Amino acid sequence: MADRKIVDAKNTFCPGPLMELIANMKQAEVGDELLVLSTDEGSANDIPEWINKVGHEVIESSEDAGVWSIVVKKTK
Amino acid sequence: MKILIVGGGMGGTILANNLARKLRNELKSGKASITMLSASDKHMYQPGLLYVAVGKMNPSEMYRDQVSLLEPSIEFKVDPVTEFNLDDKNVKAKSGTTYNYDIIVIATGSRTHAEGTPGLAEYAEQFYTEADAVKMYKKLEAFEGGKVVVAVGVPHKCPMAPLEITFMLVDYFKQRGIWDKVQLHYTYPIGRTHSLEPVAKWATPEFERLGITYETLFNMKEVNENAVVSEEGTEAEYDLLITVPAHKGMQVIEDAGLGAGGFIPTDRKRLNMEGRENVYVLGDTTNLPISKAGSTAHFEAEALAENIASLMTIGTATRDYDGKVFCFIEAGDGKATYAMFNYQNPPDPKAPTAGIHMFKTAYNKMYWASARGLL
After folding, report:
1. What CATH number did the domain enclosing B232 receive?
2. What is the ipTM of this complex?
3. Could you report the per-residue pLDDT of A43-65, keeping only the tens digit for each?
4. With CB atoms 3.0 to 4.6 Å apart as the test, which of B65, B200, B271, B284 could cross-link to B110 if both were Cys?
5. Is B84 inside any structural domain?
6. Within a domain: residue B333?
7. Interface test with B, best of A10, A13, A38, A46 (most B CBs within 10 A)
8. H-assigned helices in chain B
C-alpha cells in the first residue's frame, strides 16, 4: 500500500484544511494516499468537491467526536 | 548556553531581541550567547511590497540595516547557512565557518516557486521581491485597459494578499481614470473567495458591488501567453495576469532533508522540530497549518523567547504558542479591516473602516519598533 501521509488541520482556520490538502497534494506522488484531519464541518463537503472536480479519488470519509477523517488518493 | 538563530526576518529578529532582554544577566556574565546568521545585512518590511507594486511606496522605505534593529548584545553575521548538522549541533555557513550551538532556531522563511507553474515566470506579474514588485508597477503603468486576472498558488505567504492586491488594483485603476476600461477577474483555489469564511462573506458582495468577476476552485496548472489554465480544467483569458505564486521553504532546508517543500515538521505548541528538543522553528519555515504571515512569526517568537529563557533560568518551558495570527486586510477605497484568530477561536472581522486603514498605514512605520521587540 502507498504511504498514507497525515495532514493534521484540526483547529486551524487559515489557510484551512482544503488549502492544506492542496499544498500537500502538490508534494505527493501519483498513487499516494493522504489522510486529512479536520474539525471544520465544511471539510466533509468541500474536500470531496475539489477532489472530484480535479479527478483525484476520495477513499473514505468519517467523523468521530467532531473530527472528520478524509482519505484521498492522488490519481494523476 | 550558545543560542544560534538562523534567519534575520521578522521571527528571528523579534526572538533575538526578546531573548537578549530576558537573558540580559546571562549574556553579561558569559553564561549565554546569542548569534544570528542571515543572508543579508538588510531587513525588509515585506508587506511593503504590496504598496510598491501599485506605486504607493518607494522601495527604499522597506529596508533598514539589520544590525540597527538588534540589541547590541546579539552577535550578528551575514553568513548564510549551507549545511545543518543537527546530530553534531553545528551548522556550516557560506564563509566556511562552522558554528556550534546548544539551541538552534531556524527561521529562514519562504520564497516564491514560480518555476513550479509552467509559464508563470514568463508571462505573469508577481510582487514578492522588490524587483518583481517594481516590474509589476511598470507593467501597470503601461496598461491601458483590458482583462486583468488575479490567480493564486498554494501554499502562499500572506493569506490576505490575494484580496488586498485585488482591491488595491481597483483603487489604482480608478485613480488612473481607466477603471471603466478594465475587467477584473479574481480566481481562488478553494470553493469561496477566501480561506476564512467570514472574510469570504465580506469579500464576495464587495466583488459584486465593484463588478469584479470571480471563479473559485481554480488552481493554477500552467500559464500561456493569453490564458491561465487551472487544475480543474478551466481557463481564464487575460491581458494582464497578476499572480500570487505558490511558495516553498528555502532550498537549504530542502537540501538538508529537514522537511518536504522546505517546510520543517514542527510541534504546534512548543515550536520544536519534531523529534528534536534543541531545534526550534519559526514563521514560514514551519509546516504548521496556519497562516504564513509576519504576525504568525511575531507571536511565535514571543512565545519561544519566553520558553528558551525559562529553560535557561528554571529548566523548563512555561508557555505554549496558542496559534495567534493577526492580519490587516486592505479593502481599498481608503479602508481596511483585520482578522485575528488562534487555534481555538475563529476570526470575526468587522466592516472595513478608514480608521483601521490609517492604523495600518501607521503600522507600516511602526513595524521597525515591532521588529525591535518593543511593540
Report:
1. 3.50.50.60
2. 0.93
3. 989 999 999 999 999 999 999 99
4. B284
5. yes
6. no
7. A13
8. 10-22, 24-29, 48-53, 66-69, 120-123, 130-142, 161-176, 197-210, 251-255, 294-314, 354-371
